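Form 12-C: Joint structure prediction
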Amino acid sequence: MSKLPIASIVESVVDWLEEYCAFLFDFLALIIEGTVDVFSAVFHFIPPLLLAVLLAALAYRLGRWPLGVFALAGLLLIQNLELWDGMIDTLALVMTSAVLSIVFGLPVGILCAKRPSVSNVMTPMLDFMQTMPAFVYLIPAVAFFGLGVVPGVIASVIFSVPPTIRLTNLGIRQVPAELTEAADSFGSTAGQKLFKVQLPLAMPTIMAGINQTIMLSLSMVVIAAMIGAQGLGTEVYRAVTQLKIGEGFEAGLAVVIVAILLDRLTQKAIKTRGKSSK
Amino acid sequence: MIEVKELTKIFGTNPERGVPLLRKGMSKQQIFKETKLTVGVNRASFTVNEGEIFVIMGLSGSGKSTLIRMLNRLIEPTSGHILIRGEDIVAMNDERLRQLRRKQMSMVFQKFALLPHKTVAENVEFGLEIQGVPKSVRRNKARESLQLVGLADWEDSYPDQLSGGMQQRVGLARALANDPDVLLMDEAFSALDPLIRKDLQEELRELQEKLKKTIIFITHDLNEALRIGDRIALMKDGSIVQIGTPEEIMIRPADEYVEKFVEDVDLSRVLTAAHIMRRPEAITLDRGGPRVALQLMRDNGISNLFVVDKARTLLGVLTADDASQAVKEGKRLEEIMIRDVPCVTPDTLLNDLFELVGTTRVPVAVVNEERRLKGVIVRGAVLGALAGSLRSNDEGGADIR
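Section 2 - Result
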C-alpha cells in the first residue's frame, strides 16, 4: 500500500487558508503584535532595578520573605548577566499568550461544562494540541504569519490553552449539584447561575489551569525563538547553534528564574484569593 | 392550594412510552424488565391545603426527592399536572416558571446548599439579588428573615463558620426572604444531629404558625413526619401508598408496608393521653357519700374514684381505704378526698406521661381546659399502648394498682 497523502493534504489546506483567509491572519497579527508591544513597552519603560524591587515586594506580600529575597536576587542576577532585555521580551510574549489563552480558553471551558456535546468534541482536540510536538505548530504559524513574534505567540497559545479549558470545564462541573439546584430553585437565569454561583466556586480550579497555561506558554515562548520570537529563547538558541555551553547555561538559568517566579506568584495569588473568601 | 394530579416521572430514553404501561397497572419492576425505563414517580396525586405542613415520607429510592423537584420543575415531569391556585406549573413557559420560583416557591436543601463565598446575609439575600432588588432593601429583608430564625448576629459570618444547625437556619432564612407562599423542604433536617433536628422541627412548627406558609416537607424519618406533619403521604417504589393525618397513619396503616414502618415508631412521641385514656368512674359530690362511693368501687372492681361536681369539673379523688375508714368514722366526702390530683390535658404526649404515671399514688386524670373530667390514665394502658395494643378504650375503671 502506498503512503497516505496526509502531508500533501495538510499543505493544500494551509495553502487554501493562506489564499482566502489572509485578512483574518492580518487582523490576528495586528492584535497580537499590539498586545506584545504594549507589554514590552511597559516593562521596558520601568528601570530594571525598580522592576526588580517591585516584583520582589509583590512576592513578599503574596508569599513570605524567602520568595521576596529569591525574586530580588534572581532578577538582579539576570540584570547582571545582561539578559534583562531578553527577559522583558520573553515576559511580554508570555503575558500576551497567557491573556489570549484566558480570553479564548475560559469561554470554551464554560461551553464544555454546559454542553456535553462540545466537551466530547473538544477533548480529543485538546489531547491533540497538547501532545503534538510543539515544533510542528511553528511551521504553519510561520507560513501564515511569517517570521517573528506573532507566530511565536500563536504557537504558544495553541500549546498552552488546553489546561485553562480543561480545568475551567472541570471546575464548573465540580460545583455541587445542590448549589446549582439552589440557584435554579430561586429563579436564576443561566447567566446569573454562571456568574454568581458556578464561576466563583470554580475559581480555584480555573486559577490552577491558568497557572499551568502560563508555565506552558513560557516553555513554548523559548522554543519559538527558532522562528524569530525575541527573548531569552534567542540567547539559548544561539548558544546551542554555536555550542557555547557557558552562555547557554546562563540563558537557561534566566529562564528557570522567570519560570519559578511566575509559578510561585500565580500560585500564591490563588491561595490568597482562597483565604480572603473565608 | 396545590393540587397534584397523576404526576409521573420516568427516567430513560423516550420515557413517554412508560406512561401507558403504568396506566395498565404494571409495576416498576415489570416496566424496568421490559423497557429498561426507571419509574421515579408513579402517578402521584394529592392536594396540599393552604397553610399546612404536608410531609412526603419514604425510604431512599421511593421517589420522594424526585417528586418534590418536579413541583418546581428542577426535574421535568414526564406527565401529569401540578396546579398552584389553579395554574398548571407543568404548562408554564420559562419566564413564568422563573417568576414562580422567585416569588411563590422557595426550596430548602438537605445539605444546606449555601454559597461558601458569600456571607450569611448575602446568602439570605440571594433570591432577592437575582430578582434585582436594590441592595439596601434586600439587606433589610435579609435581616428580618435572619431574625426569624434567630441568627440576627451572624450576618457577616461565612457559612463554614457556622454549625450545621445554624447553616440550615440560614437556608431557611434564605427561603423565607423571598416571602414565598410555598416552602419546599427536601430532607431539610436529615443531615443534622438528633437534638438539633428536634429543635429545628419545633422551630419550624412555630414559624409555620406565625407565618402560615404552606410547607411541603420531604423526609425518610417517620418520627419526624409524625412530629411536624399536619398530613403525611407515604411513598413506596414511586407511588403514594397512604395519605392521612399522623394518627390515621399510626392507627390505621393502609397496608403491610405502612404497618411495618409504623412498627418501629416511637409511639410515645406520637400518641397522646386522648388515645389511651379510659372512661372515668366518678361520683358527683352532692349525690352520695362514702358509702355510695365504696359501692361504686366494688361494682366496678376499682380502688379509686374521682369526685366531680354537677358539671363534671374535677374536684378530687377518693381511695377505697379512705372511703371505708370514712364510713366507720362517719366523715363526709369533702373531708376525705385527695384534692391534689395529677392532671394532664388530652393532647399530652405519652412520653410526658411516663414519669407522672410511675410516681403517683392516685390515678392521673385527663381534663380539658375547664378542668372537666374527660378520662383516666391507667398505668397498664400506657405500657399497653407502647406494646402496640390500641384496642378498646372504654373498659372504664380507674384502677392503678
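Section 3 - Comments
Chain A has twelve helices and no strands. Chain A has a mean pLDDT of 88.
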